[in-house]
Amino acid sequence: MTALWALVIIVNKKVLEDVHPVAVNFFVRIAAIVGIVCITVPLTALHLWSNGFGIDAAAAGWIALSAVATWLVAFNAYYYALRGGLIAVVAPISGTDPLWTAVFAWLILGTAFGALTVAGMAVAMAGVVLISRWMDAGDEAGAGAIGGATHGEVLPADGETDERAGSVARERSPAANGRVRLITLAVVAAAGWGIGPVLVDLASRSYGKPTATMMLESQALGAVLLGALLLVRRTPPTTRRLEGPRRRRAVLLLVAAGALEAVVSVLFYLSIANIGPLLTMLIMATTPAFSIVFGVVLLHERPSLRIAFAAAVIVAGVLLAALDGLR
Question: What is the DSSP code (8-state) at residue 106?
Fold first, then answer.
């Protein structure tokens, strides 16, 4: 599940080169629905699992809330962040979702957390602060573009000193704003993903088990909400005119992302049902490690050693906090 999700991140990064983030989110939901049907119908028909199909009103309500938090909020934030930053930056920060799961489990379920969780939160936050301080133009990999800057901008060479100083300030401001926006988007994604398992757990408790109907309701409602958002905003689905091989490549990447996400979704629900949300998120906390390795090997990203160290600090903090739920 964890390795597949890391691979999904790689595919998403590639498709975002040509497709708008909200459109990626929408099309992946459609592909994921088809994938979930193709997986769960044979499993049910052949009696290879006991989850089957079914839902009640309370479970449907929890899943609806989960769909809003996960697909409409978290994934849109994640896609925007992923489009503008290195995987080595986005994956570790958005991978703090187990910390948010612990917080929401405490707020909603009354689950207590102890000193390890608090210590883990502090360590992970330190890692996020380190990333925010160490992100330079190369490490941001486009974060400035989110804030409106481009890496091709240069300072005028013949201006007066005060004009040059003003130009420097104006250039740094968009870059700083882009850095803050990138980190904020990744944190919002983590928070949305963090509350998702708690809501799924509530739905599973209400009905007695997680079912394919819950998975399909979540994805379908997400697709409806995202489709409505695309219509309201009238955002073109692609970032450029796609023809021939480029268009086929985008379609294949979207289908691949949806298919992989369908498998991860099934495994995710089964994990929550069998080992609980906290242990599930503990396992998922190792995703940034896979993602960074895949990013280096498949996308040829070259994060600095400082960014890699900060990412390791975040993962260590998340693992430390998640261990508290196992005691």
Answer: I
Whether the per-residue pLDDT at 262 is higher than 60: the answer is yes
Residue 149: the pLDDT is: 35
Q: What is the pLDDT of residue 143?
A: 40
pLDDT(266) > 90: no
298's tokens: 């498949």
| Cα–Cα distance measured from residue 213 to residue 292, given in angstroms and rounded to the nearest whole number | 34
Backbone angles phi, psi at 20, to 5 degrees: -65, 140
- What is the DSSP track for 201-217? HHHHHHHSS--HHHHHH
Residue 176's pLDDT band, with cuts at 50, 70 and 90, is low
Two tokens, residue 313 = 């600090």
How many residues are given for the chain? 327
Band of residue 169 on the pLDDT scale cut at 50, 70, 90: very low
Q: Which two tokens stand for residue 228?
A: 């409505």
Whether 204 contacts 58, CB under 8 Å: no
What token pair was written down for 49? Answer: 């699992």
Residue listed under structure tokens 């757990």: 201
CA-based nearest residue to 93, from 171, 166, 180: 180
Delimit the domains of the chain by residue range: 2-326
Which residues, other chains included, contact 144 with Cβ-Cβ below 8 Å and sequence gap of 6+?
137, 150, 151, 174, 175, 178, 179
**In the prediction, which pLDDT does 326 show?**
59
Joined tokens for residue 194? 């963090």
Partners of residue 257 on adjacent β-strands: none
- Of 265 and 231, which is predicted with more confidence? 231
Lookup result for tokens 């994604």: 189
Burial class (CB in 10 A: 0-12, 13-18, 19+), 286: middle
Query: CB neighbours of 267 closer than 8 A, spacing ≥ 6?
Result: 1, 4
Distance, in Å, from the CA atom of 123 to the CA atom of 305, rounded to the nearest integer, reads 18
User: Tokens standing for 266?
Assistant: 């099934």
